Amino acid sequence: MYRSYHPTVPQYKLISKSCYVPKFESVFFIDKRNMNPLLLLFMFLLTANCEAAWRSTHVQITNNLDPNTTDLTIHCKSADDDLGVHVLHHQEFYRWDFKINLFGGTQFWCSFQWLNQFHWLDVFIEETFNCRDCKWIISNDGPSLYNKITEVYDHKKWNDPKKRT
């Protein structure tokens, strides 16, 4: 298809008496009559979720076990990443950053081991947790997640040990 770029052709827009600029449709060869509704929907969904594409989420886990207790050993993973084993002394923390999966389903879980205790916990599930800076403390009473609204740590339950090995 032949396209002319002469100021008298409709691809140009008159800005002032002697200034013509190409119209958006002309520069990107967009034909409004043939705009695919699926393409428009895809572009809308992409821009609606694009915040997740560049904004990082942080998870921090702090050992708040009794000081007389031995160290806390944690091993954190997602479906895509194994963050390895980390040993935390009393009041030490482990922190990592990640980007949310653009198409959803981001999840991290950790196992926790000290003395004769072994537990595991989902520390981030995109659809469940409403935090961009998830701060966990692990104490003898169990895990707690910081609530930014109430500014206190909310006690949570360990995951069922039979559902994950």
Kindly describe this structure.
It is found in: Secreted. Belongs to the plant self-incompatibility (S1) protein family. Its main location: secreted. This is S-protein homolog. It comes from Prunus dulcis. By secondary structure, the chain is mainly β. It has two domains: 12-51, no CATH class; 54-155, Immunoglobulin-like (Sandwich). The chain contains three helices and eleven strands. The chain has helices at residues 24-27, 37-48, 50-54, and strands spanning 12-16, 19-22, 56-63, 72-78, 82-88, 93-99, 107-114, 117-125, 133-139, 142-147, 152-155. Strands 6-3-9-10-11 form a five-stranded mixed β-sheet. Strand 7 (107-114) and strand 8 (117-125) form a beta hairpin. The longest helix has 12 residues, at 37-48. It starts with 11 loop residues before the first strand and ends in a 10-residue tail after the last strand. The model is unreliable at 1-7, 14-21 and 24-28 (pLDDT under 50).
Fold topology:
Blueprint: E1 12-16, E2 19-22, H1 24-27, H2 37-48, H3 50-54, E3 56-63, E4 72-78, E5 82-88, E6 93-99, E7 107-114, E8 117-125, E9 133-139, E10 142-147, E11 152-155
GO biological process, one term: rejection of self pollen
Keywords: Secreted, Self-incompatibility, Signal
Family: Belongs to the plant self-incompatibility (S1) protein family.
